[in-house]
Amino acid sequence: MKENKPQAVFREFKNLKTLKQRIKTQQAAPPAVRSAVPSESFSSLVSVKNTPSTATQPSDKELFLQAVRDVKPLKPSQRHHEQQQRKKQAAQQAEQFKRRQQHALGQNRLASLTALSDHYTSDYDDLPRQDYLNPMCGTDVLRNLKKGRWPIMASIDLHGATVDQARLRLEYFLQHSLVEGFKCVRIVHGIGYGSKTTGPVLPATVRRWLSQLDFVLAYTDCAPREGGEGAVKVLLRTSAHLSI
Fold first, then answer.
1. Is 194 part of a structural domain of the chain?
2. Residue among 180, 182, 184 at smallest CA distance from 146
3. I need a surface site. Which of 29, 167, 230, 233 has the fewest CB within 10 A?
């Protein structure tokens, strides 16, 4: 039986209304989310990401050793020692320049040998005649002088000189030695066999002069290789003489 045209049109509108409601329902529902890795849990993913790959990543120590494999260690530096030596030399040069300047201007306070007695006798009679030790020094100073701790830095020969000549020459020599900062000097006075009438004069007189000078710390006979009994080895006190 054939339906009439109005009923057919009504049914088409009804179907259209139903389709429209279905579309609205689908749009209102939240979209379904598919799992990126449906076969793995979240905890398994976290554990995999937090586990370091030691097979492919070297340790920090290995990286450091690899970076410095071509580095060579430096030789021990002498810079500090050289700096100390330069400072010491500069101080010595400055002090020497000061002494020379004072000497040139007549400001040095060295005792003149002309004011010393030729017959002075020391109160320290416990020492042998050939030795002298300044009262301000310990006995180790004389002992070290005998052992040759301080090398002889200058020498003067008074052979054949009269007492007056020896006085002037020795005064100049001692002043020059102090200006230059010489610690240990040698004075060759001979044994005195040339004095036919009065006997040996110069050896004893020279040592009397030395024992009256406050900058003379000690003296003793020179060793045979240094001149023996005919020479006296003298230790002087200079401004830089701090380690006696």
1. yes
2. 184
3. 29
**C-alpha distances in angstroms, 102 versus 15, 106, 238?**
130, 6, 14
Rama region for 125: left / alpha / beta (φ>0; ψ in -120 to 50; rest): alpha
Q: How many CB atoms lie within 10 A of CB 150?
A: 18
Angle of CA points 54, 60, 66, to nearest 5°: 105
Q: Residue 115, Cα to own-chain centre: how many angstroms?
A: 45
φ, ψ of residue 184 to 5 degrees: the values are: -130, 125
Range of the domain at 195: 151-244
Rounded to two decimals, the pTM is 0.52
- Residue 187 located in a structural domain: yes
- Establish if 81 belongs to a structural domain: no
Q: How far, in Å, CA of 230 to CA of 188, rounded?
A: 6
Q: Read off the pLDDT of residues 77-132 as tens digits, 9 standing for 90 and up.
A: 667 677 778 887 777 777 666 655 554 444 444 556 655 555 545 554 454 568 99
CA–CA distance, 92 with 87 (Å, rounded to integer): 9
Sequence-distant (6+) residues with CB within 8 A of 5 are none
Number of domains in the chain: 1
User: What sign has the CA pseudo-torsion 158, 163, 169, 175?
Assistant: positive
In a domain, 188, yes or no: yes
- Tell me which DSSP letter residue 225 carries: G
